[in-house]
Specification:
There is one protein chain. By secondary structure, this protein is α/β, with parallel strands linked by helices. The protein has one domain. The chain is 25% helix and 19% strand. It is built from 2 helices and 5 strands. The chain has a 5-stranded mixed beta sheet with strand order 3-4-2-1-5, covered by helices on one side.
Length: 127
């Protein structure tokens, strides 16, 4: 099963939250997990070099676990319109990546209401 998992927290920054634990365990059980981390943090400065202004980055951690770091084009999408643009750009980049690796069917796992703005842009949506 392919799972697009919106975690919202940095993958490599501790301490881990339930989201990272779920994603890690699902990948260990054989599911292919694509964990979307936050591109910015209000608490920590990102010195990892993972962020790019225009391009979303995808990093393979293990056979079944990929970390998606969104671009920083909209660093603080804090209103409805900038959040929607941010989400649509991110979804477009993920769909392009999925097409490249031949993924058509996936589950979109999210727990933040602002991600709901992309639901009508996913074909064959499963909730």
């Amino acid at each position: 099963m392919n799972i697009l998992f919106y975690g919202g927290h940095k993958w490599e920054s501790g301490p881990w939250f339930r989201k990272q634990q779920f994603a890690s365990r699902l990948s260990q059980k054989g599911h292919r997990v694509f964990y979307i981390e936050s591109s910015v943090s209000m608490i920590r400065v990102n010195n990892s070099g993972n962020n790019s202004l225009l391009r979303t980055k995808i990093k393979k951690i293990s056979e079944n676990l990929f970390i998606i770091t969104p671009s920083m084009m909209f660093p603080y999408p804090n209103n409805y319109y900038s959040r929607k643009l941010y989400n649509l750009k991110l979804l477009w980049e993920i769909k392009r990546f999925f097409k490249k690796i031949d993924i058509e069917d996936f589950i979109f796992w999210f727990n933040q209401a602002e991600m709901a703005s992309v639901l009508n842009h996913i074909k064959q949506l499963k909730i």
